[in-house]
Every structure is written in structure tokens, then in C-alpha cells.
Amino acid sequence: MDEETPLLNRRATSSESKMYNCRLYLAVFSAVLGNFNFGYSLVYSSPVLPKFKSPDADPRLRMDTEQAAWFGSIYSLGAAAGGLGAMLLNDLTGRKLSIMMSAVPSTVGYMLMGGAVDLWMLHLGRFLTGVAGGMTAASIPVYISEISHKKVRGALGSCPQITAVFGTLTLYALGLVVPWRWLAVAGAVPALLMVVLLMFMPSSPRRLLSLGRVQHAERVLRWLRGSKYDTQAELHAIQDSINKQATITWSQLATPTYYRPIIISVVMRFLQQMTGITPILVYLEPIFAKSKVTLEPRYDAAIVGAVRLFSVALAASLMDRAGRKALLYTSSMLMFMSSLTLTMISHTTPCPPGPAPLNLTALDYSPHNDFGSTLQAVQQSAAGLFPLISTMVFIFGYAMGWGPITWLLMSEVLPLVARGKASGLCVTVSWLTAFALTHAFTHLVDSYGLYVPYLIFTVVCVLCLLFNAVCIPETRGRSLEEIENYFRTGRTFTITQNDSSVQSS
Predict the structure, then answer these.
(1) Long-range contacts of 264-268 (CB under 8 A, 24+ apart)
(2) Which of 32, 150, 319, 454 has its Cβ near the most Cβ atoms within 10 Å?
(3) So what's the pLDDT on residue 337?
(4) Looking at residue 417, what DSSP letter applies?
């Protein structure tokens, strides 16, 4: 066995030099169109809610504070239901079909919102698009991790977050010029395109091997890696890990091999939502309106969306260079500093003062008064920029780490035997948290202003920093089998002959 190991390593290195990723990238692109739709639908309420709360709105569609809170948060409730559905579909139908099936609630939901003549159609439509978002959030990261090889898995693992952010930016940009009904109609296009492209993409090789379809898995792997790629070493590693798996039992869940990675994934998704990212994105324009920023809130939202896209792209380029933990540290610190700044701004000056009313009796045309008026205008403009800049830093920090890396680590550290169900559980916990926080956010702001929510987010950022330091392992450059071995042994990623014999027994 010891003499064969160097030979297998040499064969694997030789085959990797003949690897081509063009088809792999095409398969990833086809899948992450679902995440584009997810990002688009998540923030649909941001430009739309001000129109529904306006006195000029259609009386049948006009919303008060409670109805607006439900419209903003019910998406997260639908996403939780979609995560639960993905728990079953991931293992019953496979990752690919689960992703494709998400197009059904997505399209129906958009059509309901686009043709809404009553409030129940808006809420039901938003709930259904949330179901689709939960399904894709649970299925796409797992599908990408299982068709990718370890050299590019970090970068490709961040693609779901990048495309979700691009979908968000697209919604903000279209919201500047497109009526809200046509915004809903446009949202159905990416989901339909995703279904068409995925029809021609392969299933996961790991899924095919688990069904005993070895020859099909080999053809799929060769299609993904290139015709000159030696598939045997990778197929052997995947098959070996599958052979060592059994149906998970409740007693096994009590062992660190299973409960540690599941708890890490669940807590990461919980903390990710508790940073406040979902209510900030969902209510971005109303938040800026309350903050009295210098620019119009809809333009501020578009700027923040562009910054978020840039930061996620930067994180993708650094994912396999700087490592997961370093980016998570950076992310936590940036979010902490920006949320602390927002807390102090909203507490000391909840709303920066607007221009003072003109007092004709006190007009003074002296040069000194002109200078004072100019200085006051500059100070007011600067005060109006602080909330925008701090929010941009917060979004930048989130998108550098806790946004994409949480998705990636979920697909990397979850036990292979329970990955389908565990990923659905993580997404469900995540979106139930987002629902509760998003629904409560509107009422907290109405009762206490922005100060209390921002203070909560600041405390959570400190918890994120501590959790990363104590609990999260560095998975950069590790195969899925090595990561599983780390939790099995509790000490090392390296798979030795002794570890293999322990797994086989």
C-alpha cells in the first residue's frame, strides 16, 4: 500500500496537468443562474415598498407598517420552506433536478406579483419566490462542490454569492427606470434560462456513483475535466468515501465526526443572518430615507449594490490565496467597525438636520455670513454621507467573508453521508432567523429608531469574530475526504493508512 501511494500521487498530478475547466465553468454558470434569481428576488421589496406605502398607491395594494413588514419578511419564511424541501429533494432526485424544480415556484411567484390586484397576490408571490430561493440556496453550493476539483473549488464555491449579488445589483439598477410590475416579469427570465441550460449539464459524479452508475460517472467526470484527464484516481477517491459511508444513525450523530461540522455550519448560517444583512438589503431604500442621506435613497441602493459586487469578486480571487479564516477575520472586523459607527450616528444624530428654513428678517449679506452658510452646508452634506459610507463598508466586509465563505464552508465541512439533509437544515435555520429578524426590524425601527438594530448587529459581529477564532477550521486546498478526516480524527487533515483502516472497520 505504501509503495502504491506515491505512484497514485504522481498519476493524479499528471492528470491534473491535462485538466480543462471550460465545461466545468459552463455547468457552474448554468447552476448559479438560480442564485442570480435568488439575489434579485430577495431585494425586490427595497424599491417597491416605498411605492406601496405612498399615498398615491392603488388603494387595493397600499400597505401600512405591519403589511410592509410581512411583505419584506415573508420571503425568508418561504426560503425556510424551500430549504426543508431541499432536504428531501437533494437525496431523492439529486442536486441538479432539485435546482431545476426551483424554477416552478419562482416563475409562478413572479407572475402573481406582476399581475397583482390585491395584497394577498403580492404576499403569496413573494412567498413562492422565497421557496425557490431556499431550494437553490440549499442545492447549488453542494452541486458545485461535487462537480469541482479542489484547485478551483474555493473560487467556484464563491460563484453562488457573486451571482446572487449581481442579481441584487440588477434589481437595484432596473428599479431606477422600470415599473414595479415589469420588475417582477423580468425576474422570471433567469429561472427559465437556468432550466434550459441545466437540461444539457451533467449530474454530480458523486451522486451517480452512489447510485452504482460507475460508467456514467466516468463519462461525466471526463466531460467535466477534459478528454485527456485520467479519471481513475478521482473516481477511486470518491467511490472509496462512498463505500465507507453508511446510513447515519442517531448514535452516530452524537460523535464529533458528525455533530461538529453540522453545528459549525448551522451556527455560521445563524450568525450570518444575525449580522443584519437580510433586513439591511430588504429595506435598503427605506433605511437610507430614514438616515437622510445626501443622495436619493434609490441611487444610494444602487451604489451599495455595485460595492457589494466588487467586494464579492475580490473575495473570490482571494479565497484560495488568503484562506477562509483570514477573510472571515477581515470580514468580521470591517462589519464590526461599520455597524459600531452606524450605531453611534443613529444614537447621537438619528436624522442629520436638513437645511434650515429661510429667515428673511435675519438675512446678512456680509462675506462672513456667506462663509458660515457655506460651512454649514458642507457639514450637513458630510453628515449625510456618513450613513452611506458606513453601510458601504458593512456590505463590503460582509461580501468579503461571511457572505460567500459561509456558503462555501457549508458545502465543504458537512459530512458526506448527510450532506443533502444537513445543507437543507442549515438553509432552514438561516431563513427562519432571517424571517424573525426582518419582521422585527420594521417594528424596532418604528419604536426605537435605527439605533437598537444597529447595536444588536454590532454585538453579533463580535460573536462572529470569536466563533471564527475558536471553531472554524481552515479548509483551503483540502479535498472533501481530507476535511471529513479532520473531523473524524479531531487532529489532522492528512489521511493515513491507519485512518483508512479505522474507517473500514
Answers:
(1) 264/409, 264/413, 264/471, 264/472, 265/409, 265/410, 265/413, 265/414, 265/422, 265/423, 265/426, 266/425, 266/426, 266/429, 267/467, 267/471, 268/402, 268/406, 268/409, 268/410, 268/467, 268/472
(2) 32
(3) 93
(4) G
**Interatomic CA distance for residues 157 and 403, integer angstroms:** 11
The cell for 428 is 432552514
pLDDT in the model for residue 462: 95
User: What's the pTM?
Assistant: 0.73
DSSP code, position 117: S
Query: CA separation (Å) from 472 to 156, 263, 428, 460, 465?
Result: 20, 11, 21, 16, 10
Three cell numbers written together for 5: 501511494
**Which grid cell is 153?**
473549488
Which positions of the chain have pLDDT values less than 50? 1-8, 12, 349-365, 371, 375, 378-379, 497-505
Long-range contacts from 347-356, C-beta under 8 angstroms, 24+ separation: 347/451, 349/383, 350/449, 350/450, 350/451, 351/290, 351/291, 351/292, 352/291, 352/292, 352/380, 352/383, 352/384, 352/386, 353/380, 353/383, 354/292, 354/380, 355/380
